[in-house]
Design a protein that fits this description.
alpha/beta, five-stranded parallel beta sheet, 19% strand, globular
Length: 125
């Protein structure tokens, strides 16, 4: 299965997403912000990045921009509970696969992740 990096500062959401994806057989690495995500990306290969938009240090939008530049074949799935942030992400359609709105179900996050994993590289970006 896939190796997925989850960047989420809310520990409850991070745990929910990580457990849901692990239950589907994926290997999951979880971090608390965009800076930690960049560090993880520098040390391991990932098949998908799932990141919250609103995080301290480096937010999900900044992280997606950096990933698109440094890891162009890595699909990015954004999560947000804020409609204004969803609109900000809308302007990044060419860089991300999807924006999933919180709250979401276990099935919704798993289906979004699996859809992002099945697209051809660069199709999301």
């Amino acid at each position: 299965m896939a190796h997925i990096l989850v960047a989420e500062d809310d520990t409850a959401v991070q745990s929910f997403v990580s457990r849901a994806l692990a239950h589907r057989g994926h290997k999951v690495t979880s971090v608390e912000d965009g800076v930690q995500a960049l560090e993880a990306l520098g040390g391991s290969e990932f098949d998908l990045l799932i990141t919250d938009i609103v995080m301290p240090s480096l937010d999900g939008i900044g992280l997606a921009l950096k990933v698109a530049k440094d890891h162009p074949s890595l699909p990015v799935l954004l999560m947000t509970g804020y409609s204004a942030e969803r609109q900000r992400a809308h302007n990044l359609e060419e860089l991300i696969c999807e924006v999933i709105t919180k709250p979401f179900t276990l099935l919704e996050i798993c289906e979004a992740a699996e859809a992002a994993l099945t697209v051809e590289p660069m199709t999301c970006h």
